[in-house]
Amino acid sequence: MKPQSTPHPLVAAIPLVVLIAILATSVYLFGSETLSGASQIALIFASSVVIFISVVFYRLSWKVFEKQVMKIFGGISITMFILLAVGMLSGSWMISGVVPTLIYYGVQIMSPSFFLLSTCVICSIVSVLSGSSWTTVATIGVALLGIGQALHVSPAWTAGAIISGAYFGDKLSPLSDTTILASSYSGTDLFVHIRYLLLTTVPSMLITLTLFLLMGFLGGDDKGNTDVSTYTMGLSSKFHISLWMLLVPVFTGVMIARKWPSVIILFLSSVLAGVVALVFQQDVLREISLSYGDTSGGLHALIKGLSITYFGHTAVDTGNESLNQLVSTGGMVGMLNTIWLILCAVFFGSTMVAAGNVRSITNALMAFIRNCTTLVSSTVVSGIFLNFSTGDQFISIILASDMFKDAYRRMGYESRLLSRTIEDGTTVTSVLIPWNTCGMTQATILGVPTLTYLPYCFFNILSPLTSITVAALGWKIYRTTK
C-alpha cells in the first residue's frame, strides 16, 4: 500500500468514534469524577487508535507524530503557566476577602420582585471573580436556590438564573480555564479574546436579564430575608468586609484596560491580594496555617498561611456549610486536573493533526461552507455536537479548535473570530446536555433535572444564536486578508 498523508473522512472519524464510546462509558461509570482520570485515559486510548491506523495502514512514520506533538506542546507551554497563575489568583482573591466582600454586598440588593435578576447578576459576579461555573453553582448557587424556594420562585427558573450567571463568568472571566483554553488553543491573546467576546456576550446577557426582570414580578415574598442575613453574618464573622477590598479588582481592571500581558496581570493581582490578606485577614491566614499543623503563630504563621493560599487547598470554618464550600480554594494544586486533561487532549489533537485526520474531516465540512455565516454556524453546530457526543466541554473546545483553525486561516479571518465562536457554541452549551459532565454535575448539585432547567437558561441558549446573528450582520468581523 502506498503511503497516504490524508485518510478518507470515514477513516479519519474512527478515532473520534472510539473516543466518544470510551467517554460515554467513563461518564456512566464515574459521573462528575470523569475529569479526574477517566477522560484522560479515553484520550490516550483514542490517540493509540490514531497512531495504529496511520502506522499500519498508511505507513506513517512515528517521527511525524513526535514532531507534531513537540510543536503543539511548545505552543501551549505558556497556557500551563497561566493556569497555575489562575490557581494562585483564585486562592488569594478569596482568602484576602475580595470575593467575600463582593458577595456580602451583592446578596443585600435582592428583593422578591428582583430575585431572579439579582440571582443572575450575583452569580455572574462570583463566576467572573472565581472563573468557575462549578464553584459558583455549588456554593452561592445552592444558597440562592434555597432563598428562591422560600420566596416561592420555581426551582427551574432559579436554576436557570443561576446557571446563566455562572456560565457568563465561565465564558468571559480571565480566570476561567475554558476562556484560557479557547483563546490559547486558537492562538488568540487572552484579553483580545475577552474584549471580542463582549460583542456577543453583552447582548445575550442584556436580553437574559430583561427576561428575568419581567418574570421576577410574578411571585415571591419577604421570607428569604433571614437566609440572606445568615449568609452575610457568616461572611462578616470570619472575614474583614470592607469596600477597600474592591481596590484589588479595580487595579486588575486598570491593568486589563491598559492591555498588559495576562501573565503579568494575574501575578501582580495575586501579589496585591496577598498584601491585602496579610493586612486585613490575619486570623484567616493563621487558621489556614494551623490546619497544616503550624501552631507557632506570629509572622511565621501568616507567611505560611499565605503561601498555602497560593499553592494549596484551603478550608475556612464560617459556621455555615454552604459558605465553607464557597470560601474553600484549591490554589495551584486545584488546577492540576485541568492541566492533566489538557495535556492528554493536546496529545490526541496532535496525533489527529499529524495523521491528517483533522484536515480530512475539515475538508469534508468545508464543502458546505460558503461565507462567514456558514463558517460560524458550522463551528457552533460542531461545538454543540461535540458536547453532545464527547460529554466534556474541554475536549469539545480542543477538538472544535483543531477542526476549524485552518478553515478560518484559509478564509482570511482573524483567530479571535474562531475563539469567540468556540466559546459561544461550546462552553455555554455543555451544561444543557444531561450526560455531559457539566449538565450532570449541575443537575445533581441543584437537584433540578437538566431538561427541567434547560428552557430557562436564557444566556446559554442565546449565546450561540447571537454569535451566528453577529456573523450574518458582519458586525466587527475582522480579516487578515481581503
Care to describe what's here?
Helix content is 74%, strand content 0%. It is mainly alpha-helical and 482 residues long. Residues 220-226 have low confidence and may be disordered.
Helix/sheet category = mainly alpha
**Count of DSSP strands:** 0
Low-pLDDT residue spans: 220-226
Our estimate of the beta-strand percent is under 5%
Helical segment tally? 25
Order of helices and strands: HHHHHHHHHHHHHHHHHHHHHHHHH
For the largest beta-sheet, the strand count, sense and barrel status come to: none
Mean pLDDT, to the nearest integer, reads: 84
Oligomeric grouping of the chains: single chain
**What is the overall shape?**
globular
Rg computed from alpha carbons, rounded to a whole number of angstroms: 23 Å
What is the terminal-to-terminal distance?
A: 42 Å
Helix content: over 70%
